[in-house]
Amino acid sequence: MQAIILDEPGGIEQLQVTFVNSPKIQDDEVLVQVKAISINPVDVKTRAGKGVYGRLKDHSPLVIGWDISGVVTKTGSAVKEFEVGDEVFGMVNFPGHGQAYAEYVAAPANQLALKPSEISHEEAAVTTLAALTAYQAMIHQYPVKAGDRVLIHAASGGVGHFAVQLAKHLGAYVIGTSSAANRDFVLGLGADEHIDYRSVKFEEATSDIDFVLDTIGGENIDRSLEVVKPGGTIISIPTGLNAEVSQKAKDKGVNGFFFLVQSSGKDMKALAGLLENGHLKPHVSASFPFDEMSKAHELQETAHVIGKLVVTLND
User: Fold this and answer.
1) Measured between alpha carbons, how far is residue 25 from residues 71, 115, 296 in Å?
2) What is the predicted pLDDT for the residue at 251?
3) Alpha carbons 237 and 130: distance in angstroms, whole number
4) What is the DSSP string of 217-243?
5) How far apart are CA 14 and CA 252, in angstroms?
6) Which one of 147, 229, 241, 311 is separated from 109 by 20 to 30 angstroms, measured CA to CA?
7) 8 A C-beta contact, residue 149 and residue 176
C-alpha cells in the first residue's frame, strides 16, 4: 500500500510517498481503508521534530497522522461493534504511533465510531483530534454549563470552531477571538461576541470569564488570566502552563492547567451524535489529494487556516 513516511524530521520535503506492507491487525483492531485524513498543527510540528516526535522517533517506518475516516475491510476476532463495510472515523492511537498517512490503517476498535451516513468522509475525518480536544476540554476537564461566560481564542481555527459550537450547545455565552476577516465566520458559528485580536486587546474588551480555552499559548495565557474571574478555569492546549503562570493562576484563585487530548471511542460516539443532529458542523477550508500532502502541510504552517484541512484518497 502507499504511505507517507518520515525518515527524519525537517521540512515538507521529508514527507516521502512510498510503498510499505499493509498493517496486520490485532484481535481488538479493525483494518480501515482510509478515505480522508485530517491535518492538524501537531502533524506539522511532529514532522519538524517537535510535537510528539520524541515519542515516535524510534519507529521505522515512521508514519505520522492520527485522524481518519474510512471503511472497515477486516475485523479482529475480539471486535463485536463493527463489521466489514462499516464506515467509521476516529483519532487513532494519539499521542502514539497513529500511522494515519496511509491507504490502510490498523485501528483499535475502541477508538472509533460509526460515521453518520449524511456526513461525508471529509467532514468526518476533520471531526476528530480538533473536535475531541474541544469536547474533552469542555465535557471532562471543565464541564461547561448553561450561563457560563466562555472565551475561546483562535475561534475560527480547528479546535476553536468546534469549541464555539459545543459551548453554545451547552448553553454558554461565548466570546471568540480571531482576526476581523473571520468575524462573520465566528459569529456564524454561534458566538455571542467577537473580538478582533489585532485591533483590540481582549483583556480590555471582556471580563468576568468562567472558562478560557486557549489554543495559542505563550503570553496569551498570561493575558487571559486577567479576564478570568476567581474560581474560573483556563486550559491551554499548545504549550501548557509553566510553573510561573500556574502560580499566577493559583494566586488569583484561578484553575490553570494543560491537558493532552486522548483517543476515545466513547467520545467519538458522542461527536457522531452531535454531527448527526446538527449541533456540530465541521468547516473544511481546503482539500488535497494524497500525493499533495506537502501542500496541506505548507498551508497548515501559515497558522491562519479557517476550520480544517483534509487530504483524500481511495476514491
Assistant:
1) 15, 21, 29
2) 85
3) 11
4) -THHHHHHTTTEEEEEEEEESSS---H
5) 45
6) 311
7) no
How many angstroms separate the CA atoms of 281 and 303, rounded?
Answer: 21
CA distance 178 to 28: 42
Q: Which residue has the cell 480536544?
A: 133
**Alpha helix locations (H) across 136-251?**
158-169, 183-188, 202-205, 219-224, 243-251
Q: Looking at the chain, how many residues does it have?
A: 315
Residue from 216, 200, 205 nearest 303 by CA? 216
CA distance 71 to 94: 20
* Joined grid coordinates for residue 110: 475502541
Which of the four pLDDT bands, split at 50, 70 and 90, describes residue 242? low
CA angle 241, 235, 39 (to 5 degrees): 95
pLDDT digits (tens, 9 = 90+) for 8-25: 999 999 999 999 999 999
For residues 12 and 17, give the distance between their C-alpha atoms in angstroms, rounded to a whole number: 12
